[in-house]
Please model this.
Amino acid sequence: MEIKEIILVIEDDKAIAKILTAALEDSYKVIVSKSLEDAYRKFTSFNPSLILLDLGLPDGDGKEFIKRVRELGDKPIIVVSARFDEKEIVNCLDLGADDYVTKPFSIKQLQARIRSTYRRYERHMSPLDNRVVCQELSVDLVSRVVMKNETLIKLTPTEYNLLKFMIVRPNKVLTHQVILKEIWGVGYQNEMQYLRTYINSLRKKIETDTTRPKYIITESSIGYRFCCNEEEH
Ligand code: CA
Model:
């Protein structure tokens, strides 16, 4: 018998929990929790490999769950949030959530997000390869050579650092603050213009059509996502 990955769905809305279960149960074993307290219990006893998390729960805020789980280790968490509240989403991502989907969501999109989150974790756990490949792009992390198809792409050191930071975190939403802090350092978290400028110049070098980027996707008001899946286009 095939052993399925266990997904813990933390959702107090019965109808949504039902839709999620129906959408996922062919591929995964789905466990549902309707409260934070029950979720902590099931998290410990079932050891799920991924968590879908609602934020508004009867006994507290889903963000508490992110904090608690991040203290325990590295389990993928996708926030399934009722409305697009950018501040709330940024808070969740900064606490360590991996991704978010806003309701109403498309089942196909949710399934794609789950698959790419799993892939990212698998890649993370395999021994570090020198070369990262994403669609037609490849980056050699030792020689710092960047190629698109067979063409060499010349980058400035900052463009390279930015590309490297994003490409080793494929399909993950990276907030403006996280990128600024990583590339420019503490104290630069609010220098949005730096980031915009470098994203634009990097796009000019790696994207075929900068008006419809397929690598560096803008997550409006939140940050950027480096896309490595053909399926999300
Ligand atoms: Ca809720």
In short: The first strand starts at residue 6 and ends at 10. The pocket of calcium ion is lined by residues 12-13, 54, 56-57 (CB under 6 Å). The longest helix spans residues 107-125. Residues 8 and 195 are 36 Å apart (CA to CA).
